[in-house]
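Exercise 7. Predict the joint structure of the components listed below.
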Amino acid sequence: MEAEDWVPGPPLPAGGEGPGADSQPAAGVPGTAGGPLLAAAAAEVLALDDEEDDLEVFSKDTSLAEVNSFSPSMPISPSSMTNQYKLEDGPELRDLFITVDDPESHITAIETFITYRVVTKTSRGEFDSSEYEVRRRYQDFLWLKSKLEEAHPTLIIPPLPEKFIIKGMVERFSDEFIETRRKALHKFLNRIADHPTLTFNEDFKIFLTAQAWELSSHKKQGPGLLSRMGQTVRAVASSVRGAVKNRPGMFTEMNDYMETFSQKINVLDKIAHRIYKEERDYFNEMKEYGPIHTLWSASEEDLADSLKGIANCIDRCCKATEKRMAGLSENLLPILHEYILYSEILMGVLKRRDQIQGELDSKVDALANKKTEKDLLSEEIGKLEDKVERANNALRADWDRWKQNMQCDMRSTFTHVAENNLHYYEE
Amino acid sequence: RAVESQIEGQCAPVDSLWRRYSEFELLRNYLSVTYPHIVVPPLPEKRADFVWHKLSADNMDPDFVERRRMGLENFLLRVASHPVLCQDKIFHSFLTQEGGWKEMVNETGFQLKADSRLKALNATFRVKNPDKRFTELKHYSDELQSVISHLLRVRARVADRLYGVYKVHGNYGRVFSEWSAIEKEMGDGLQSAGHHMDVYAASIDDILEEEEHYADQLKEYLFYAEALRAVCRKHELMQYDLEMAAQDLTSKKQQCEELATGTVRTFSLKGMTSKLFGQETPEQREAKIKVLEEQIQEGEEQLKSKNLEGRDFVKSAWADIERFKEQKNHDLKEALISYAVMQISMCKKGIQVWTNAKECFSKM
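Solution:
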């Protein structure tokens, strides 16, 4: 029996140090230690409640608050065995509120970087105080993410904004870039906070609460580079072994789904970008269109007013188009991007799951015990993936709705404008 | 290249015959020369101009041919409704006489007038006392031409872009439909939303076709501006003629006076040579004076008639110009209104499509 130091969800006192001083390289196998701990965790207050999703994203996207598609009628996952979740009472389940704002740049001798202020408000007991304010830089977020991945290789960790945009459209430190990144970081933390398991992760807590120096010293306690390398090697090895053998049908389905989904999302992203570009070109041409009419009105007498009216309207159309473009770039594009990342993450998760299974299979002679735990794990994963998929869908519905709202608004603006026009020179 | 066009005779008994574009051109040339003071309605363009990329610039393209046909019909209607032009015999026979019409036109000998006019119009000359009104009018027609052609160009580009925006949305349709295949709960919503995207993308074709009609209306006035300008030029020409004639007369009179009185008032070669080589005999002088007096007589009559001509021209030209102005204001106003109506309907369609799509999305 391998005594794997599995980092449990809930903050059991033993786990206070993070994944680990004594973690062993075989990260693939959760080990018996993890199993019961996890079950115990499950028994704790892990909310699987509908309303929690109302507050899933504590951000400016107020429209998302309407999401409620986490109906209890979810496909039955075999997790019923472990499903001893207690429903939290009351709609105010959110006991952890996080915001990311106030980017500031710091210049040192070696480098320049940006830090963001992370404000946390909580009513949870395990937090020493109810409010925290710390500053974190992008690297810190990366660290958090990798810790979470280590700790929960088959849970779906939300995506982080990328290091840099490859398309080179945006300067590394431009305001636009920083703002986009800030929003994404904000979302990232909030998603973690909403995740029934991840939210109790110790590293997460430390991330939210520790002062800068505390954090750096804590970071250093992570598993050494060597051990991490060992993990990777193992991972590669196991995938080479064709870990797909005993994959339960459900996961094959998921895999197929993810592949197609990922394809489609990428295409959608391309389309959306293309639309944005076309709209921008349209806008540029329109800008010239209005003034011509004004120019013309200068040579006319009777027609002058009508022409000026048209020029006016065209200009308003221009503004409307601008708004539409802004809507696209603020809402649709980032979300599409996020889901592209998500699809990659999910593929990764599925792979890891396969690895785990592969490892398991290769020891199948040994411990029926283990197998049970593996099942537990699988089910857990399965359930979670379902959950995220539904989150997926819900979000989709919302952004689409929002987008349509936006488009509709644009159209109405156009119409109003045109109607005014009409009245204008029907006089 | 010409396009065949069928006309229905209006003020003649039953008639429809075939005319080529070149015959229309001939008719118009004839009218322009015969009625220089009238702003003659323009013909639709020979080649497709101001096209946006989807619209073909091919003259044989059926859409273009159709629009040209409408333009030619419009031309005839305009001529027929013009108080002066509609009475022209050549115009009548254009509508009624199948064969031999061309010959008839040529027989009027207008071609000669046309050629000389053309030469004169293209020459540059300075008029000493330009009529201010005509000068202003000329400026106006220049401005109108430039502004309308600019507008048409930009409109073509805008149409191009708008087309792009709509069409790309069509891709959504395809992807949504593919995506819906793998989704369970979202499937139906996606599928129907995709359908709406397709509708949206397809709607732009009709919209832009209607806009072409608006563009054609503007184009007519673009060419009208040219006709207006021509009238101004003709007036200038007349004026110049007049001034030249007057000048000529004055100098002849002067010459006469000099010969008669023997004084040389202004420096002239004659004066010099006569000083140098001696004066002419009285007989020669008398002869000369007689000739000159005749010429002066002629000249004065000519001047009178030219003046009269000029005044007539100005009067009738201004009458027609006023008529034209009113027509232009009315037509353009209507065109602008219909453009606005088009925009409104386009927006309404957009609202409808997106409302539907929104519904689909919210059911996902």
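Discussion. The beta strands of chain A are 96-107, 112-122, 131-137.
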